[in-house]
Amino acid sequence: xxxxxxxxxxxxxxxxxxxxxxxxxxxxxxxxxxxxxVVRYLGHGxxxxxxxxxxxxxxxxxxxxxxxLRTLMTTNDLALLQAMTRAIGRRVEELQPPSA
Length: 100
Description:
By secondary structure, this protein is mainly α.
């Protein structure tokens, strides 16, 4: 399972990635697992049991694409997963052209 350093490097990759299609696919691919993790927390204590996104320290050292995607797909810690998906979502918003 990836550690916080792996997650920090993955976030650094996602924050600089210009491939919107890759970022969107990553969000779609991770959604079912994230949903399952949330349901598990809800079953063990309700909404209050769901952790907030982890506060992952910034690193200037970005992971390689494959390593970042592997970290995203193998992280089972919901707080770390949320930190990565937030970074991906923010980057997608940055790269999308403004709507008319």
